[in-house]
Amino acid sequence: TKTMKYLLFNALVPEQLPTLKELTTTEICKVWASASRYIRRQLLQKKVVEIGIGTFAVIQTCATLEQGKDLTVERPVFQPCRFLKTFYQLKCEETKILEEAPSIPLDFEQIAADIHFRQEIVEQCIHETLLFFAGTLRDNKEVEFSFK
């Protein structure tokens, strides 16, 4: 499966990240900002977005108001895939994502068009960033991965 390529037995070497070496930090951030916008648009349509290492979705949860009343609210969540959690021994809050929600992968063509990049560059940038993320998990380093 797609996830298996992010289960790293060995440390990453720079040769595994050729696109990230060629792009500037600004260009990498541009790709991920576009990916974030794409994910947000899909979540607003109640779609589930799978990115190789896990899934973004919107779930319903209850919030208690001051008056003691419960209010149902929707909140975005990221659920790392089960293989990733097991392989890297991640402790994550278990979030139940509805099975009936349509699940879609990232649309690299749309993400690339949004920022006027070639689709292959966007796809490789995202793949290599996820590989780098997996490498930090493998090496037990602290990492922050933020989406707007």
Automatic annotation (TrEMBL):
One of its GO terms (cellular component) is microtubule organizing center. Residues 15-90, 105-148 form the CCDC81 HU domain. InterPro entries: CCD81, CCDC81_HU_dom_2, HU-CCDC81. It comes from the Eukaryota. Signal peptide: none annotated. Pfam families: HU-CCDC81_euk_1 (PF14908), HU-CCDC81_euk_2 (PF18289). PANTHER family: COILED-COIL DOMAIN-CONTAINING PROTEIN 81. This is CCD81 protein. It comes from Steatornis caripensis (Oilbird). The gene is Ccdc81_1.
